[in-house]
Design brief:
396 residues, alpha/beta, eight-stranded mixed β-sheet, 16 strands, 19% strand
Length: 396
Amino acid sequence: MKSDQPIYIGVLFSRSGWTAVTERSMLSATEFAIEEINKAGGIDGRELVPVYRDPMGDPTAYQQLAAELLTESKVKVILGCYTSRQRKAVLNVLDKEAGLLCYPAQYEGFEYSENIIYFGAVPNQNSLFLALYLLENFSPRLYIVGSDYVWPRESGRIMGDLIASGGGEILGQCYLGDDATSKEFDALMADIKRCSPDIIFNNFVGHSNLQFYNALAENGLDGGHIAVASLTTSETDIREIGASATAGHITAATYFASQPNAANKACLQRYTAMRGEPPDANMCWDAAYTQAHVVAQAMRSCDPDNINSIRSEVLGASFDAPQGRITIDPLNAHCHVWPKIGIARKDGQFDIVAETRHAVRPDPYRTTYSLLSDSALPPEANPPDFDWPDDLRARR
């Protein structure tokens, strides 16, 4: 007998706290996607009902609220988390309670769980291409900075290996806690001045990114004095920091709101028409929107009350996402995505200066990275398949 009862889905993003600037964009994308799903008839006529929780950026709260969603609220799927600390906190719950987490952020890789689907990029889908771009465009003497937890540190290690293998030099590294003071940032700026790098590889996350850019300006290092590159600084961060302070910033991402492809333009137009304002779209917004639709697509093809059936349908699924057509790898539960390099403009958007011609398969378990070996790049994304701009291609 066909049920007409609603299907509840957990939504675990912070509206407040140190990572809220990005998580609010993921929340808005999730809300929009669920509205679209229900407008199109829900899950075979059953409404998809979000059950919201606000962990306020605290990993302990993510763990507690995930447990509450899976036990008391009886949800089967949770859409949520931004940082690796948050994800790992929820993973502790998923090891005990039956449920599935869909995770919409780029991360350091080296993880597998039967209870998580990873929709963000892993290092072979962003770090590799950013390293190639920096080596082609700069005499890369790098200073690595970031927030003090696993993702920034691991991303810094990987980028350091890539740049060193390509002939660059790592001049210094510094990681600061999310409670770092202005004096700590000033000390960091003093060391950057002393080292005089060509590029700062910036892995600060959330509010710490604003502190970092403020410190650059206050210490006379903004305005193009030193190139800054990252895997996280997105349109959303720039809106908080200020476009004038970030113009020229280099970001490697799977999605930029300025993409001219039809699927992206149509999605942004639908959001604006449905919600009365343009979206605060960025790479995590795209992934959050995509994962909600992929889960709904899976639920329509199976028993939506059976978590094992949902997971089986998600693995191998494809979807025409704003970034391009993505596929969930059935072997490792990570996503085939579309790497791009963007340069921040004065209006807060990005000019896309390089992109792959194909979606790149995820390789989340690579432990070493080097550009000295052709095997560093996946077959579908060797340099001939990376769409460099003409002025860059001429230098190759």
